[in-house]
Each structure stands twice: as structure tokens, then as C-alpha cells.
Amino acid sequence: MSKSFQTLNFLPAGKFKIDLVPGVTKTNFFTICYGALTTIGLLTFISYSTNYVLLENLAYERGQIGTIVGNLQVIAEIVLISIFLPIGLIADKIGRRQVYSFGMLTMGLAYFLYPLATGIGELTVYRVIYAIGMGSATGMLGTVTADYPQNHTRGKMIAVTGILNATGVIIVSLFFARLPKNFADMGFDVDIGPLFQTPEEVAKQAVENDVHIIGVSTQAAGHKTLVPMLIEALRNEKAENIVVVCGGIIPEKDIPELKSQGVGAVFGPGTNVTEAAMAVIKLIN
Q: Residue 122: which residues within 8 A CB-CB, separation 6 or more?
């Protein structure tokens, strides 16, 4: 009698394998792994973006933002405590996928609104929106992590997603959040655009600020769609001389296609900053 479930082997001789429950495919498994990698990274990035908005957009002094950041965090935690129960009840009624999708979209909306805040009141509202999305997404991430594997391999599934959670945090903390500062320290004049701009908005900002190069990073796996749109938008602005480079988690198989469409370079996680800077200088020259 053939088994009706799928098994994933991570080490030879089945020394570390995960048996999925019937009906769950390998595609489902790798999708939740991608979610584990990116969702927690997005949670980490909110702390960096909060500081940036307060210092750069709202013109607070660094010594003034500690209490504000702390108050926003407390409010977010209160919202989280308040929504976990209703989120769980809703998920049991309409399904995990719908709630997880709602959570990611809501977090995206909050990230879009965050740099548009004109005061602490607006920033607080946007942080509440973000917390609702965060609670929905992280709650469903944990639930699906427990749902997908069979009981005797559930611990291994939790270990895999836990490693991916930590990896996402490391990538955001050590690479994406610090990259602009590292380039600035090397003498580059760095203009940081608001999150979640359209390609047309990025092109317009680049032209207005007379930049030489645009660095694009997306955690939404939108590089094959958004980057060509950005290059086309630059053409429409008569700014073909502006070089576009990409960073982030981009599959190796996608890199030749991106370069054929006009991308100057692709910098993945772990890229040496000095080497990246030298590559950028070469592209500009």
C-alpha cells in the first residue's frame, strides 16, 4: 500500500526528515519556509524604519526618540494581545491562508503609510495597523508550522522554520538595514526613498535628486516584475544613464534575465560591502 503523504529528507539516509500530513505538498512546505524567512525579517525592520522616520522625516533629535519608540512598542504589544484570540477564531472559520494573506497585506500597507506620517499621532495609527498585520501573519505562521508536519516530525519542522526566522532577522539587521550607512561611510551620498514606492515614483525621485545609481531590494519576490518596470520608467524620464542594481534574496536563475533587461549588478546576502562599493564605482565610471 503506497503512502499518501510526502517526505522531505534534509540529510542522507533519512537522518533528518519531515513527513508532511496528507494533502500538504512540497510546494506548500517551501512556501511556508519562505514565509518564515521573510515575515520575521519584516518584524525586525520596523525598528529601523521607526528610527529613520522619526529622525529624517519628523526631524526629532536622537535624544528625543527613545521614549517615543518605547511608547509605540507598548501600544503594538497591547494590540497584539488583544487580537490573537479573535484572529485564531477567524482562522478556524475561514482558513489559515486567508488570515495569513490579510496579515502580510496589512503589514505592507503599514510600511507604505509609515514614511508618510506627519506627526506622532499618525505614526501611532500606522503602528497599530502594522501590529494587526503582524499578529495575523505571525499567528498563522506558527499555526501552519504546526499543521503541516505529522506529529512525529513536528519538532523538526519547528526547528527548520526557527532557523529561517533567525536567518531573516540576521539578513535584515546585518545587510539591508546597514547597507545605506556603510555606503555613506565610504563617501557615497545616499538618498533613502520611502518604502513601497512605485517604479515610476522611484524613477522620478532619482531624477530629481540627480543620482547616479539606484539600489533595489524587495522581500516580496517582485524583482522580475518591478525592476523591469523601473528601468522602463527611467527610459520614460530620459534617464537611461542611471544605473540600476539589485540586492536581496534573488534566485541564481533569475540573475541572467535581470542583467539582460538592464540591471548592472546583483548583490545577494553576505555580499562584501567593499566589493559592492567597488562594483558600484566601476558601473558609474
A: 113, 116
> Does residue 231 contact residue 223 with C-beta atoms inside 8 Å?
no
The grid cell for 159 is 526547528
Minimal CA–CA distance to 129: which of 153, 100, 149, 102? 102
Whole-prediction pTM value? 0.57
User: Which of 28, 250, 44, 42 has the alpha carbon at shortest distance from 157?
Assistant: 28
Burial of 143 (0-12, 13-18, 19+ CB in 10 A): middle
Q: Which residues, including other chains, have CB under 8 Å from residue 50's CB and lie 6 or more apart? A: 69, 72, 114, 123, 127
Cell of 251: 534566485
| pLDDT tier for residue 4 given thresholds of 50, 70 and 90 | low
Q: Cell numbers at residue 3, please?
A: 503512502
